[in-house]
Each structure stands twice: as structure tokens, then as C-alpha cells.
Design brief:
The complex is a heterodimer of chains A (833) and B (230).
Chain A lengths: L2 H11 L2 H40 L3 E5 L3 E2 L4 H9 L3 E8 L2 E3 L24 E2 L5 E2 L6 E4 H7 L6 E6 L2 E11 L6 H4 L4 E3 L1 H7 L6 E8 L5 H12 L4 E6 L7 H35 L1 H9 L4 H29 L1 H10 L12 H27 L3 H6 L4 H5 L6 H19 L3 H14 L1 H19 L2 H10 L3 H40 L4 E7 L4 H5 L7 E9 L1 E3 L7 E2 L2 E2 L16 H10 L3 E5 H7 L6 E6 L2 E11 L10 E3 L1 H5 L6 E8 L5 H15 L5 E4 H41 L1 H9 L4 H40 L10 H29 L2 H6 L2
Parallel strand pairs in A: 2-8, 4-10, 7-9, 15-21, 18-20
Antiparallel strand pairs in A: 1-11, 1-12, 3-11, 5-6, 7-10, 8-9, 13-22, 13-23, 14-22, 16-17, 18-21, 19-20
Helix pairs in contact in A: 1-10, 2-8, 2-10, 2-12, 3-7, 8-12, 8-19, 10-12, 15-16, 16-27, 17-18, 18-27, 19-25, 19-27, 27-28
Chain B lengths: L2 E11 L7 E11 L3 E6 L5 H8 L7 E6 L2 E2 L5 H11 E4 L11 H11 L4 H14 L15 H12 L6 E5 L7 H18 L2 E6 L10 E6 L2 E7 L4
Helix pairs in contact in B: 3-4, 3-5, 4-5, 5-6
Classes of the chains: A alpha+beta (833), B alpha/beta (230).
């Protein structure tokens, strides 16, 4: 083995804890980056396969360019007759009004769903607020893309045969605060337009056409163009127009954010670790330089160490990523999106995280490596008081001090002129990169204070701290990250919750929604009694129809003619294989396979007995397996045998969204609805809170955030413990000398307590400072995303972090060290070198 | 006989103490195969002189030729390569790499010089044999006594067959017995291998073993004794 490699390995082995922390950081970063890429590949593939199974691949979009003119019924019928056209989906515009128009907002088109309101302020994607006080439209970005219009252009709408013209005032995030969670799109219109449209037929602005498998898409598109004539045109022909489901996007964004955060964290850990390592090895580097090693050789040796750390992290991270790929996709499935099956490993998923990690590692280690090449060889080799002391700065370089001052001044200037984001960013960079002058000033102040008042123990402790500045900064950074992650978790949680409630409130003056599943074929009048429940303001329904398996008979689902259920077998079931499911479904008419979103909505599990409405009342069915997602849309969710279906063992399941008039009515209404479900009307099988369902989707995200926060905090605490252990071990001879000349164990323990207290306090204060700045920045980003939140620690938490944590850690450390001092064999330690 | 080392009017001042001359117009010459000793009290500037001669401390004034090369013409990495090929160092504190075994410490300069691994191993074993440590080749520095560590350091200094060995108080951290062994190694190298040695010490007892003795006082170097060599 080359000596340089062996030297690097031995060096890492002697610093196991420090390097292990860095490796863990790289492992997590690579793991998350790998999962992001694999999910990004697997989900569209799953969706594509799903649609391909049912419809074929190609899609054709037809609309009237730069207008929102409705496609008339006869044109739609003509399109449907074009050979090769499988099915058509009419894209539609849901319209909401600025302000609180309540019912007026329900300009629901094609019966897709309801509209949440509360659009007091509309922002463009760049964060600019759009004025919607006058007449005009604000389109969502996807609508603008579909219609091909830009801001300032006039669009021509035909409403109920009457021509309406409006100016597009803005294209932006018009979905409101809920949209990132719900994935819905709205057109925000001025009050005047909405008043004009109320009660009018919906606008169909585009038609999405899916072709049959094997159809020649160009020919189909050409035929459609002939049918639609001059006003309308084929806007797009594509193999797939499948976007990533919104909640998968959120998941990916969160994973990407986490991966980036962890890479930054890992980079910082490697930077600080290598700084300390280089400081410890400065004697070895000086020796190497003396015997002829060039600067390049030293640089490569240090980088080799970090490369080994990064390499180990990359390998472990990829192994972890591959091992946990399926569980991650299942978690996405459970959040209501189509996670798909674990895809094959791609070169991109393997190479990109590895390259990012390697770049991070080498960049982080470069500055310490450069430092190792710039040694005063003669001074270090002739120094008798140890290599660490030799490199410990007696003064901070002028350039660093100047850069720190410039960073602080620029940050202040930004703050004064109101550019808070720039001010925060500048301050963060200054604190993280040029932390040493600040800590140097702190230790100088402590020393000056102790000199002035002659505090012997404090003086000794504060001088010793000067040598441990990089470690304190490293730990401080970790504490800062832990606080930020914790604040993000609780902050995002409350921000999302607040946004949900605010949206619901603005719609109904205070409401939540409950989902009631029932039988639409039995007792419509009973269902109508839901309205009689106190607090119920309004209800809407959506059908969950049944799908049969193993049959060639088409089943009608919401007006769409589906082909045989055969293609369903292209999806991997959870809990059971397809052949087994087929056998069981045919053998026992009470066995069912349920789509995962419905399972999640009602809290069902594979193997569980569930209650479903039947034509003869509520029947008990047994869930033998789960489909990973809704096979087509939100309609076909339960698979059962044709025999069971035909013999009316079951009837279609229908859910009702019951809007409650106030938040206060929720509990009472829930109880009433449950009573109806259980007793008065057995056809109602279950009641579930829709808001709870939304929150559940974000559960895994919160769990990841919280785990990360705890993990980082633990690493920071372990780092403190490790630092103190190293400190005592490194100074065992000095301690023995102190004992030999008469210092009592208690006195020395007090010195160590003070020293640890100073280091921990510096670390915690630095962490709090960093956290405060980063949290403000993050809070602003989250607010801009539509979730107003202020990420602030409470004064009590700040006090605990600033005073309580250092005192407790220093106390525990001092107790442990006291024991070490008592066990110290003075004569032996003095001989030790 | 060719001069391996030729210093002409070297002057040195530490930037932190601009008024104090550590070296004042130091001139000296060391020839091939010579064993030169520089003696002086602590703080007289002899170690600084060795560092300047060893190109670890930059030359501020004067001229220095080592092995016929004017080293002032060389840049930082050039100096490192020069040291690798032409100079061997022995320090008072040994400065072995703790994480490498004795034989690996000796191999290290050869690896830096890209000597083939097999040749390097053979030579490292020979060198350890030469200093009487062939049985301890796999021991780590922490497992060796001070005298043994210094002998490993001497073996390391010889690794690339340097033109000259510079030793800074090589016996300063050793007891009398270990110091005698180490000096014996130097003497053997000088007598049997014709290695050029420049040794700095405050121990005048070593002077008896040297060809030339230089005395350093307050930065001024003077020739104290010279024995004509054949």
C-alpha cells in the first residue's frame, strides 16, 4: 500500500469520531440525492406506464389560441369520432374571486371540485404582488401556457354566447395558499368578471385527447385539426403530457432541500474537521516539507484524506439509497401520490450524487489543504511546545479581519435599505466563513476581563480555549443547523395548518371539511339528512365507483369508457400478487383490492375487515391487497370480482365532503355524523376529516425534519464531549505537572469546568446567532411560498440554549473530568510524552 | 576536493525582531565527506544557521551554494525537490511520522522521490540494518526509545543518498548512552560511507569526532579547529 494512502488511513483512524461525523453527513446527502433522482425517474415512469396501459401513449391538445373560447359540443363530438381518439379530457378553468365572495366563488366547471378562496393577495412566481383590484384576469402559469397568452394581452372569452374581453393582469401563483398541497389551479378574476359569469355555463378552453395504442398521432392530430376548423387548433402533440403529481413535487423539493442542507452541513463538518486535523498534523507536514515533499504533494495528501472520507460516505450513501429505495416510494404512495415501483438503477442516480458529494468534500477540504502547504517549516520544527500551539493563531490575518468587517458592513447596509434577504445572506456567509475573528475577539475579551480582575482559573481556561476555536465554531454551526431544522419543522407545520384553516375560513367563515363515505344507490334521502346535522353548511359528493378485475366487460367510470381491467395487472400490488388476488377475488366475493389513496383516507390496512355499503345494507369485506395508486383518476378505487359486483353484493361507494359552518362546530358535527354512520343510517360507513388527511400526507416530511434535527443536535453534543475528552487526553502531562506542584483536584476541575463552559457557550451563542439569521431567511422563503410564518425561538428557548445548555454540559463534563484527575498517576503522566 | 556547501556572508534577521541580527555575515565551506560541527550556546543562532543552510529558512542576504547549485535561484517547490534529492535532516525532536512504522518512515522520502516500491523496501531495510534497527523495522515511533527513534531519523535522512546530512542537536533529547550510540552511527557514516555531515550542538564533547569545528557566538561564525583530511 502506498505510504501516503496508509498515512491518510491511519490519520483518519486516529480521528474516528470527527471523521465518522463527516462520513455520516456525506452518507445522508448522497442517500437523499439518490432518492430524489430515483423518485424523479420512477414516478413519471409509473404514471406513463399507467396511462399507456389504459390509453396508449400519445396526447393531442386542442384549444383556441389566445382566447378562452369554448369548444362547442358538436366540435367535441366531431373530435371524438376521429379514428384513433381514445378519450378526451376537457381542461377547464375554475374561477375564484378576489375577496370573500363565498358562494360566488363556486364557478365550478365540469363538476371537478370546489374552490377555496381567500385570494386577498396574489403573487407572481418571482414574488411580485399582482394588482387585481381592477378589471382583468390573473391566470395560473399552466393556464397561461395552455392558452398561449402573456401579461398585458387581451383574451377573448365567450360566455353563454356573449363575448367578453379581459386583459391578463398577471400570470402567477394564483392557486392560493392551499394549492401547493392540493395541486389545484385557479383563475383569479376581478369581481366584475365573476359577477358577469355567475350562473353561466362553464368555459372549456382546451381538450386533452388521448390516442389509442398504436395510433399514428400525427395523422390523428391532422384529422382533428380538420374537424375543429379555423378558430381552434391543435396546440400540442406529445408522447406524454404528464406532469409530476404536486405532492410528489413537494416531496422531491423537500428531499432536494434536505440533500442540499446536508451537503452543506457535511461540507462544513469536513472543513472544520480538516482544519483541526491539519492543525494537529502540522508537525508531520512540516517534516514532510523538510525532507522534500512539494506543496502539491502535501495538498494531495490532505485532499486524499477528505477523498477517503467522501468515498466511504458515497459508497455507504448509495448502498443505503438502493436498500431504502422501495420504502421511500411506498412512503410517497401512502402520501396519496403514485410512487411507482422501484425503478432500475440509472447512471444518473449513481453518478450525480457521487459527483456532488465528491465536489463538496474536495471543496471543503481545499482551504485546510492549502493551509497545510503554507507552513513556516523551520519555526514549527524548532518549536518545542507542540504542533497545535504552533499553528494556533496569535492574531487573525488582516485580510480575514477586513473581509469580516466588510461582510458585516455590507449586511448592515442591506438591512438599512430594506433588502433583508440580501442582508441575511451576507451575514450568514460572514458568520460561517469568517467566524474566527469573532471568536478571537470573544476569547480576547474573556482574557482581558480575567487579566483585569485576576481570575486565575478563568485566565487559564480562556487562554486554552483560544486553541479550540475551530472546534467551537464547528459545534456552533451544528447547533445552529439543529435549531434551524427544528424551527423549520414546527414552523412549517404551523404555517401549513394556519394556511389550511385560513383558506377554509375565508371560504365559509370558519370551516373544516369531513368526508363521509356512503352508498349512493340506497338511501339518498338518508344522505340528505346529513344537512340536518347541526353545523353542516354544505355538502358535495364525489363517487368512488367500482372496478371489476379479470373481465373483458367495460365498466363505466364517470362517463369514460374504460377498456378491460386487464392492464391493471401491470401495477404491482401491495400485500398480494396478481395471480393470487385473481384467485381470491373469484373464490370469495367478499375479498377486495383497494387503491392506496382510499386506504390512506379511511385508515384501512391490508388484511383488515372493512365496512362497505351494499344494496342490502353495510357489508363486511376483507382487504387482500392494495393498488399503489388510483389506477385512472379518483374514481375506480375498489376491485372486486365480477360475480360480487353483478350480484349486488356491493354498491358503489360515494364520499361526501361536508363543509361545516365554523371551526367550533367540528367536534359536535363529527359526533353527529358518526352517530348517523353507525346507527341511524348504516349505509354510511365511515367519517374522516379531510384536513387531517392533508396533514397526514406531510407526516413523513415532518418526521424526516424532526429526525434530522435530533440527529444534528446529537452530533453537536457528541462533538462537545469528544472535544473535551481530546482536550484532557492531550494535556494529561500538563495536568500531572499541575498536580505535582500542588494543584488540588477540585481546583483543576473548576478550571476544566470554566473552559468547557466557555467553549460550550461560544458554540451555543454562535449557533443561536446563525440560527436566528438562517431562520429569518427561511421564514421569508416559506412566507413567499404562501405560508405566512415567522420562525422565531421563544425567549425561554433562547435562554435555555444560551445559558442552560452550556451550564449543564459543562457541569456534566467537569464531573467526568474530576474523576479522570483523581485517577491520574502523576509520576507516570509526567514521564508520558 | 569539491565543496558541498559554500555560504558567503549570510545575514539573517527575524521579522519579529528587526533590530537583532541572528546571523551576521556568516561564511563557511564544507567539503565532500567532511564531518563539520557547529557549536555554540543556546540562542547563539546555530540552529537558525542550520535551517538557512537546509533551505528551510529563506535566505535574506548573502549567497549559498549547495552541491554546486545556488539555491537562492530556486523557488519553494524547487527547494523542496532539492532537499529531497540532496539533503538529509536529523532533528532534535526526531519528527518521525507517528502513524508509520520505522521502515515506512525510512521509505517515505523514497516514495516522495518516486523510487520503485521494491527498491525502496530493500534500501529501507538496508538503512535500518545500517543503524542497527533491522529487528525493530515494524515498530511504531511510540514503541521505540529516544535513541532508536533518532537512529530511524538518521536512516530516513540517508534514504535518497543525500550529498549532505544536516543534524540539529541530534543528541539533545537523549541520555548519554543513547547519545553515544547515535554519534557512533554518525561517525560510522562519516568514516565508512564518506557521508558529509553538518551537525549543530552545544555539546563540545562531540567536537572530538569532527573534522572541522565551527563556533557560533551571537550570530558570528568562526572556525575553531580544522583537521586536514586526506
Amino acid at each position: 500500500m502506498p505510504i501516503a494512502l496508509k498515512w491518510s488511513l491511519n490519520s483518519l483512524r486516529r480521528r474516528t469520531f470527527r471523521m465518522a461525523s463527516a462520513v455520516i453527513g456525506v452518507v445522508l446527502g448522497v442517500f437523499l440525492a439518490f432518492e430524489v433522482l430515483q423518485v424523479a425517474i420512477a414516478v413519471p415512469a409509473a404514471l406513463g406506464a399507467q396511462l399507456q396501459g389504459f390509453y396508449g401513449r400519445a396526447t393531442v391538445t386542442v384549444n383556441a389560441p389566445n382566447t378562452a373560447v369554448s369548444l362547442p359540443a358538436h366540435t367535441l363530438a366531431a373530435i371524438a369520432r376521429v379514428p384513433g381518439v381514445q378519450t378526451m379530457l376537457a381542461l377547464n378553468v375554475q374561477t375564484a374571486v378576489v375577496g370573500r365572495a363565498k358562494r360566488a366563488m363556486q364557478l365550478t366547471i365540469l363538476g371537478v371540485g370546489r374552490t377555496f378562496g381567500g385570494f386577498e393577495r396574489i403573487f407572481s412566481p418571482s414574488g411580485r404582488e399582482i394588482d387585481v383590484s381592477g378589471r382583468g384576469l390573473v391566470l395560473s402559469a399552466s393556464e397561461a401556457r395552455t392558452l398561449g397568452v402573456r401579461v398585458g394581452e387581451r383574451v377573448h372569452l365567450v360566455v353563454d354566447g356573449r363575448s367578453v374581453q379581459a386583459t391578463v393582469r398577471g400570470i402567477g401563483r394564483s392557486e392560493g395558499a392551499l394549492a401547493p398541497l392540493l395541486g389545484r389551479h385557479y383563475t383569479i378574476a376581478g369581481r366584475g368578471e365573476v359577477d358577469a359569469w355567475l350562473g353561466r355555463p362553464p368555459i372549456t378552453d382546451a381538450v386533452w385527447i388521448l390516442t389509442r395504442p398504436g395510433a399514428d398521432v400525427s395523422r390523428v392530430a391532422s384529422r382533428i385539426q380538420q374537424e375543429v376548423g379555423g378558430l381552434f387548433s391543435v396546440a400540442a402533440v406529445a408522447d406524454e403530457q404528464i406532469g409530476m403529481p404536486h405532492n410528489v413535487n413537494i416531496m422531491l423539493e423537500v428531499l432536494t432541500f434536505l440533500a442540499a442542507l446536508i451537503f452543506i452541513l457535511a461540507g462544513m463538518m469536513i472543513f472544520y474537521s480538516m482544519q483541526v486535523t491539519v492543525a494537529e498534523q502540522v508537525g508531520e507536514f512540516a517534516t514532510l516539507r523538510a525532507i522534500g515533499a512539494t506543496k502539491g504533494r502535501i495538498l494531495r495528501m490532505v485532499l486524499l484524506q477528505s477523498f477517503l472520507v467522501g468515498g466511504a460516505g458515497i459508497v455507504l450513501g448509495l448502498v443505503l439509497g438502493i436498500a431504502l429505495q422501495q420504502p421511500v416510494l411506498q412512503a410517497i404512495d401512502q402520501s396519496g401520490a403514485q410512487g411507482g415501483a422501484a425503478g432500475p438503477l440509472t447512471a444518473t442516480s449513481l453518478v450525480v450524487p457521487a459527483c456532488i458529494a465528491l465536489t463538496t468534500v474536495l471543496l471543503a477540504a481545499y482551504a485546510p489543504a492549502r493551509r497545510a502547504t503554507r507552513l513556516e517549516i523551520a519555526r514549527i520544527l524548532s518549536n518545542s511546545h507542540g504542533p497545535l500551539a504552533a499553528i494556533a493563531p496569535d492574531r487573525i490575518p488582516l485580510v480575514t479581519t477586513l473581509l469580516t468587517a466588510i461582510g458585516l458592513i455590507v449586511s448592515l447596509v442591506f438591512a438599512v435599505i430594506g433588502r433583508w434577504t440580501a442582508a441575511d445572506g451576507c451575514l450568514v456567509v460572514t458568520l460561517f466563513v469568517f467566524y474566527r475573528p469573532l471568536l478571537w475577539v470573544s476569547t480576547r475579551i474573556l482574557t482581558a476581563v480575567s487579566n483585569r480582575f485576576g481570575l486565575g482559573r478563568l485566565k487559564i481556561a480562556s487562554r486554552s480555549v483560544g486553541r479550540r476555536v475551530p472546534a467551537a465554531a464547528s459545534i456552533g454551526a451544528l447547533i445552529g443547523v439543529a435549531i434551524v431544522v427544528y424551527l423549520s419543522t414546527s414552523g412549517i407545520d404551523s404555517a401549513v395548518g394556519n394556511a389550511l384553516r385560513a383558506d377554509a375560513q375565508s371560504y365559509l367563515g370558519g370551516a373544516v371539511s369531513l368526508t363521509v363515505a356512503s352508498n349512493r344507490g340506497v338511501s339518498e334521502s338518508a344522505i340528505n339528512r346529513l344537512r340536518d346535522v347541526s353545523g353542516v353548511y354544505e355538502q358535495q359528493s364525489a363517487a368512488f365507483d367500482l372496478q371489476t378485475s379479470g373481465t373483458s366487460a367495460p365498466v363505466s367510470v364517470e362517463g369514460m369508457q374504460l377498456p378491460a381491467a386487464g392492464p391493471l395487472t401491470s401495477y404491482r400490488l401491495t400485500g398480494v400478487s396478481w395471480p393470487q388476488a385473481m384467485r381470491q377475488l373469484q373464490a370469495d366475493p367478499r375479498d377486495v383490492v383497494v387503491a392506496q389513496p382510499l386506504m390512506s383516507q379511511f385508515g384501512w390496512r391490508v388484511g383488515q375487515a372493512i365496512r362497505l355499503p351494499t344494496t342490502h345494507g353495510v357489508g363486511v369485506y376483507h382487504v387482500i391487497g392494495a393498488l399503489p395508486a388510483q389506477p385512472v383518476g379518483e374514481n375506480d378505487t375498489i376491485l372486486m370480482s365480477l360475480r360480487a359486483f353483478a350480484s349486488s353484493y356491493a354498491s358503489p361507494l360515494r364520499t361526501y365532503d361536508v363543509m361545516l359552518s365554523s371551526l367550533g362546530a367540528t367536534a359536535a358535527a363529527s359526533r353527529s355524523l358518526e352517530r348517523i354512520a353507525r346507527g341511524d343510517h348504516p349505509s354510511i360507513v365511515t367519517v374522516a376529516g379531510a384536513i387531517a388527511s392533508e396533514s397526514r400526507q406531510l407526516g413523513p416530511v415532518y418526521a424526516v425534519f424532526t429526525s434530522l434535527s435530533v440527529f444534528v443536535a446529537l452530533i453537536a453534543l457528541l462533538g462537545l464531549a469528544n472535544q473535551q475528552t481530546m482536550n484532557v487526553a492531550a494535556r494529561v502531562q500538563e495536568s500531572a505537572v499541575m498536580r505535582a506542584i500542588g494543584a488540588a483536584t477540585g481546583w483543576m476541575t473548576q478550571v476544566q469546568f470554566l473552559e468547557l463552559l466557555i467553549v460550550t457557550t461560544l458554540a451555543c451563542w454562535l449557533g443561536l446567532l446563525e440560527a436566528a439569521v438562517v431562520a429569518r431567511l427561511l421564514g421569508r422563503v416559506i412566507t413567499a411560498a404562501g405560508f405566512p410564518i415567522s420562525l422565531l425561538l421563544s425567549p425561554v428557548a433562547v435562554a435555555i440554549a444560551a445559558v442552560g445548555v452550556p451550564v449543564v454540559i459543562a457541569g456534566c463534563g467537569a464531573l467526568s473530568i474530576g474523576g479522570t484527575f483523581r485517577r491520574l498517576r502523576i509520576a507516570e503522566a509526567i514521564r508520558y510524552e | 576536493m569539491a565543496a558541498v556547501l559554500l555560504a558567503d556572508k549570510i545575514t539573517h534577521v527575524y521579522p519579529s525582531e528587526p533590530g537583532r541580527h541572528i546571523l551576521r555575515d556568516v561564511s563557511m565551506q564544507v567539503e565532500q565527506g567532511e564531518f563539520a560541527v557547529i557549536v555554540g550556546r543556546s540562542g547563539s543562532g546555530k540552529s537558525t544557521l542550520l535551517q538557512v543552510l537546509g533551505t528551510m529558512e529563506p535566505l535574506q542576504a548573502g549567497a549559498l551554494w549547495l552541491c554546486g547549485t545556488e539555491v537562492t535561484q530556486l523557488k519553494d517547490d524547487g527547494l523542496a525537490r532539492f532537499r529531497l534529492q540532496n539533503l538529509g535532516f536529523v532533528f532534535q525532536s526526531f519528527h518521525l511520522i507517528d502513524s508509520l512504522t520505522a521502515v515506512e518512515n525510512v521509505r517515505l522520502p523514497m516514495e516522495l522521490a518516486r523510487l520503485p516500491r521494491r527498491n525502496a523496501l530493500t534500501r529501507a531495510s538496508e538503512l535500518l540494518d545500517l543503524v542497527g534497527l533491522s529487528q525493530r523495522s515494524r515498530a511504531f515511533p511510540s514503541q521505540l526509545s529516544g535513541g532508536e527513534q533518532q537512529r530511524v531519523a538518521i536512516a530516513r535522512a540517508l534514504a535518497n543518498r543525500p550529498a549532505m546530512i544536516l543534524a540539529d542537536e541530534p543528541t539533545g533529547n537523549l541520555d548519554r548512552e543513547a547519545a553515544d550510540v547515535v554519534l557512533g552511527v554518525f561517525e560510522d557514516l562519516h568514516k565508512h560511507q564518506q557521508v558529509t555531515i553538518v551537525l549543530v550542538t552545544h555539546d563540545t564533547a562531540i567536537c572530538d569526532r569532527a573534522d572541522t569545528v565551527w563556533r557560533m557566538e551571537d550570530g558570528v561564525l568562526s572556525l575553531a579547529r580544522s583537521i586536514a583530511r586526506q
